[in-house]
Structures are given as C-alpha cells and as structure tokens.
Amino acid sequence: MSEPIAASPPPQVPTRLLFMCWGYSIHARRRVQLFIDDPRFEVAVVSTWDYGFSGARFFPLRAARAARPDVGDAPVRARAGWLSTEMRERLAQARSLLLLPLEIVRALGDLGVLRAAMREFRPDVVFLQTLQYPCYLAYLLPRHLPLMVTFWNGDVTYFARWTGLEMLAKKWLVRYGLRRVRYITVNSRTAYDACVDLGADAARMQLIRYPAADVDLFARRDQGKARERLGLRAAHVVLCPRGLGRFFNSDVIVEAMPKVLARFPDTVFLFISGVGGPGEWARHVEHAARLGIAEQSLRWDGQIEWEDMPWYYSAADVMLSIKTADSCPNCMLEAMAAEVPVVMSDTRQNREWIDDGANGFLVEPRDPAAVAECVLRLLADDGPMRARFGEISLQRVRADGNARINVPRIREIVLGVAGRSQP
C-alpha cells in the first residue's frame, strides 16, 4: 500500500499594501520597490507622481503630472528670475496660502480617487509617506483599516513647528494623525522625541533607519574609473546631492566656491537632484558668474537613477549637504557607506551620525565661509584624515543604517500591522 501523499500547504495570500505618496522622491521610489520585490506583498500606489512601477497598481491623484522630475517648477520661477531668492521664497509662501482653497477642492476630488482605489484594491494596510497632502485623506477611511506612517519630510521636526495659519493647520493634522495611525516609524532620535512631544504613543512607534544604505552596493569603488564613467576630469570633486533652492542652501554653496577655488582651482562642484529644475540652475550659474567663477567649475546632472549613485559617491572627495532642516538624509548614510567624508548642516539629526572633526564636519548652513573652510580642510588632507573619517562612518552605517538589516525589519512591521505577524 502506497504512502499517502502529504497535502501541500496552501499558498500564502499576499498582504495587500497601499502606499500614499506625494511628488517625486528617489527614496520614496525605493521604499515602494522593496515591497514590490517581496512576494509576500501585493502593492498599489496612490500618488501625484507615476513612478512607472511594473509590479504595482497605480491610482493617479488629480495633481498627477506627466512632466519629468528634473523639470520641477522652473517655468513659474523663471518668470520671477529678477527677484531675490528671499523674495521668491516669500512669494511662494504667499502663493501657497492663496492656493489653499484650491487644495481643498482638489482634495475632494482626490478623496474620490482614494475611495475608488479602496474598492478595487481592498488593502490590508495603508502606508502613509507623510502626514501632509495627500495622506491626510486617509483619515477619512474606515477606522478598522490599519494605517501606518513613516516620516521622511520633517513633518514633526520642521513643518509642524512653523508659525502662521497654514502651519498651525499642518500641526493639527500631524497631532491628529499621530493618534489616528496604528503604527509609526521614524528615522531619527530627534523625530522620535518630537512625535512623543506631539502626543504619539511610544508603544506604537519604532526608530528604524529606512530605507537606509545598502553597504554592499555603495562600497567604495575605484575613483579613477568612477570619474571616467561620469566624464569628470577635475583634480577634486565636491558632490552636492540635494536639491536647488534656498531650503537646500545651494546658493550658500555657490558663495563658498570662490574661497575653495582660490586654493584648489581644479575643483568641480557637482550638483545632482531634480528638485529646483533648470530655471533654478540657470540662476545658480548666473550667481557663480557674478562671483567670477568659471562655468566649468560647477556642473548639474539633474535627476539621476538611484542605481547610478554609487559611481557619484566614489568619484567624490567630499559630499556636501547643508539643508536647513533634515530628518535623516539618506545621502549622508550612502556617502558614509562609500567612505566619503561629509560636510553637513549642524542639526540634531545629523549629530546622531556625525561627530564634528571625528568623522565629518558640521556647519551653520547659511555661513559660506565656514562651509568653504570645512571643504578646504578635507581637500588639503593628504589621506589620513579622510581615511579615518571614512572608516568610522562605515562602521556606524553598518551598525545602525544598513539596508540589509533594516529592510527586513520594516517588512515585518508592515506584516504585523496587517495582522500577519507581530511588529
């Protein structure tokens, strides 16, 4: 008599995960993709931006654009090119307030899109990438549907702390959302403390650096080959991998350039990221020309693919990011994984990773002289200091910012929120 055939275990039903996002972000794309790559999940995206995911359903919101991410808001800003940077920022804030009624009308239409996505996709959990537009629409979903949020845009460390009517409204949305969501992840101790101050339950919150840095992918490569691949012929390369505009203090970087170039004339400041667009870049080039900086001393590659980023870090002598406020900049973790010395703005979040003078430098972000001095110290070093900085930074990223460890953790948290395991 033959042995009975053991029944095969039933196939696991994928957890249906709905992401809500806004705009374009290279790291938001990564955050979604790592769930698409896991067969335990079925993914849908509700967003203003179509990332073109081949393994996820997309529900475009009313504000969805067909434009490329490197275009940004250049056409609008170009018309105000004669205005100072500060004046353009004030006009942008006033415009934002005046357009608030339009946002409310648009939000009502977007709510219809979200409800249609709910009916068609029937998610097990909704993962919010912010507590601002459009993610606050999730507050109107049935309460039995679990929501979770991960902070990536300074909701609780910057925008929620501003003054004014608009910012008070945002702060209320954040406070309500912190109570409404089932689970919260943050990527800095500063954000964790801010969430607690705003009323979050620490029992439903976890500090996890996500998506963090892939230490294998970003391991330092041959600098000569990296520069050849990118067409860089300068003796020194300062990488600026954030956006263009006052919030990123890219104007301060331009103002710091003359002092650096006076000592190391064969240096190129390499900007990447699509935020700001060609209109903003044209103003940077004009600003540099007024300071006597040759056009070949600065270069902008716009928005590049994340998979190409290791070559940019390997080509660089210094990574420079002096954004006014931050959460846990992934470019910092990636540069540290590539053992590239960093110059960062002096914020609480960055101090969690950088000890000034030990594995990088921290500066006041609106001080071009201080920025230039830090860059000069690194370029003037003949190797020992940069090597020491790189070694310490790599150890820290391996211990706490390693994507190979943190990505599985975030997946398990989502499964726990969906009721498939314990977060």
Question: What is this structure, in a nutshell?
Answer:
The chain has 423 residues and is of the alpha/beta class. The chain is 42% helix and 15% strand. The protein folds into two domains: 15-212 and 403-417, Rossmann fold (3-Layer(aba) Sandwich), CATH 3.40.50; 223-400, Glycogen Phosphorylase B (Rossmann fold).
The counted number of beta strands is: 13
SS-based class = alpha/beta
What name is given to the CATH topology of the largest domain? Rossmann fold
Mean pLDDT: 86
Question: If you had to describe this structure to a student in words, what would you say it looks like?
Answer:
The chain has 423 residues and is of the alpha/beta class. The protein has two domains: 15-212 and 403-417, Rossmann fold, CATH 3.40.50.2000; 223-400, Rossmann fold, CATH 3.40.50.2000. The protein is 42% helix and 15% strand. The chain has 15 helices and 13 strands. It has helices spanning 26-36, 74-78, 85-98, 100-121, 165-180, 189-197, 223-230, 250-263, 277-290, 309-315, 330-337, 348-351, 368-380, 384-400, 403-417, and strands spanning 15-20, 41-49, 56-65, 125-128, 147-150, 183-186, 205-207, 236-240, 267-271, 298-300, 318-321, 342-345, 361-363. The strands form two sheets. The chain has a seven-stranded parallel beta sheet with strand order 3-2-1-4-5-6-7, sandwiched between helices. Strands 10-9-8-11-12-13 form a six-stranded parallel beta sheet, sandwiched between helices. Helix 7 crosses helix 10 (309-315) and helix 11 crosses helix 14 (384-400). It is globular and about 65 Å long. Mean pLDDT is 86; it is low at 1-11 and 65-82.
